[in-house]
Amino acid sequence: MFPVEQSSSTAQKKRSNESTENRLARKPKRVDSEVMEKGTGDFFDLYNSIINMEGQEEIAKRDVIKSYFNFGKALDDCFNYYKKDNPKRTAQALVNKKVWEQLPNVSDDALRKKKERALKIFELFNEIGEDKIQKIKSFSASSISKLD
């Protein structure tokens, strides 16, 4: 049905046998917009497009998790600062006030959810090691924060 070309080019063989880490470390090549939008082109380009997008997705997930970790760390640091001179509840109220002052256009509910997720992610990776974030491949920040 589809014409399939057999290619024995060394570059193609190397690319298909290349480890995932090497593919992800390499900067994704720009794929022709026609291939991306219409799904037309040869199978090699379409396959490489999938590999590149999956690599970008993994990197994006790690970046989101790292951002939540940093937000959680900032919340924890701020809480510990206020806790030195205040009771626990007062320290938490001062942290909340400081966050709301800097994010006035974010709804209380949205901010509460982001803070909860950030603190869960911070507590997990603070315990097992921040470097473990780089090993994440398929979990999102949302799925990690749902772990008990």
Give the helix/strand layout.
Blueprint (H helix, E strand, L loop, with lengths): L9 H8 L2 H6 L7 H6 L4 H41 L4 H15 L5 H21 L12 H5 L3
Molecular structure report:
This protein is an all-alpha fold and 148 residues long. It has a domain at 65-145. 69% of the residues lie in helices and 0% in strands. It has seven helices and no strands. It has helices at 10-17, 20-25, 33-38, 43-83, 88-102, 108-128, 141-145. It is elongated and about 65 Å long. Residues 15-33 have a biased composition (Basic and acidic residues). Residues 1-33 are annotated as: Disordered. Residues 1-11 have a biased composition (Polar residues).
Radius of gyration: 22 Å
Q: How does the overall form come out from the CA principal axes?
A: elongated
Number of strands: 0
The class by helix and strand makeup works out as mainly alpha
The low-confidence runs, each spanning 5 or more residues with pLDDT under 50, are 1-25
* Helicity, as a percent range: 55-70%
Q: Which percent band covers the strand fraction?
A: under 5%
Distance between the termini: 50 Å
Order of helices and strands: HHHHHHH
- Please, what is the average pLDDT? 80
Query: Major sheet, described briefly?
Result: none
Number of helices: 7
Oligomer type = single chain
Brief descriptors of the model:
single chain, 148 residues, mainly alpha, 7 helices, 0% strand, elongated, disordered N terminus
Quick rundown:
This protein is an all-alpha fold and about 150 residues long. It has helices at about 10-15, 20-25, 35-40, 45-85, 90-100, 110-130, 140-145. It is elongated.
